[in-house]
Structures are given as structure tokens and as C-alpha cells.
Write a structure and sequence with these properties.
With 112 residues, the protein is of the alpha+beta class. The protein has 2 helices and 3 strands. A 3-stranded antiparallel sheet has the order 1-3-2, with helices on one face.
Length: 112
């Protein structure tokens, strides 16, 4: 879960390898990361009852560890990625964040 979500159901997927950009992953690690992202995308669709999930990568321009963002995209959503910088960040309710993450994971079939 992203602690400052753009939309409900905003997941971050981090590779085990600590690299500034996910595009620097080996082909094997990239495949594993994308398979996991695909399974989590299905879980987002089930959890939020949406037809689409957006995916974008973020690297060292945003943080020290490259990662993938998954966003549940409800019909009619008018968000853009052009203004992602957040000036004021509200306090984070970590309990709610963990609960939401567990709700999504309950819809994931990670072993399948």
C-alpha cells in the first residue's frame, strides 16, 4: 500500500534487489516482478470491483529504490500522473493502511 495513495487501492511493488530503477533488473527478476504485479492487479480488480489497473514505474527521481505503482482505475476517474508531487501530506493511519493491504491480499492468489 502507498501511504499517500493517489486513489483507493494504490499499491507499491518493490523488487528484492535494491536498484535505483526497476528497468535495471535482470530479465529473470523483471519477469518475477511483473508476474507478481499481474497477480496483485487481479486482486485489486476483485477488491475494488474495477475493470482496469494502471501500472507505472518509479525510480531514483522519486525514491532510492525502484518500484512499480499499481492503481485501481474506476470508470470516470479523472486523475493524471502529471502532478504527483504532494506538498502537504496528511498523517498516516498505519492501522487502516495495514487493514486495506490485508483486504487486497485476501483477494490475491499469489501461489497460483
Amino acid at each position: 500500500m502507498d501511504k499517500y495513495p493517489i486513489v483507493p487501492g494504490h499499491l507499491l511493488v518493490f523488487p528484492v534487489d535494491h536498484l535505483p530503477d526497476v528497468l535495471e533488473l535482470s530479465p529473470e527478476r523483471m519477469t518475477a516482478l511483473m508476474v507478481l504485479a499481474g497477480k496483485l492487479s487481479v486482486a485489486l480488480k476483485r477488491t475494488y470491483e474495477v475493470e482496469k489497473v494502471g501500472l507505472f514505474t518509479a525510480g531514483k527521481a522519486i525514491g532510492e529504490h525502484g518500484h512499480i505503482h499499481l492503481l485501481s482505475l474506476a470508470e470516470g476517474l479523472k486523475k493524471t500522473f502529471a502532478g504527483l508531487s504532494v506538498r502537504e501530506r496528511p498523517p498516516v493511519d498505519y492501522g487502516a493502511l495495514v487493514s486495506e493491504g490485508m483486504r487486497i491480499l485476501s483477494n490475491a492468489r499469489l501461489g497460483a
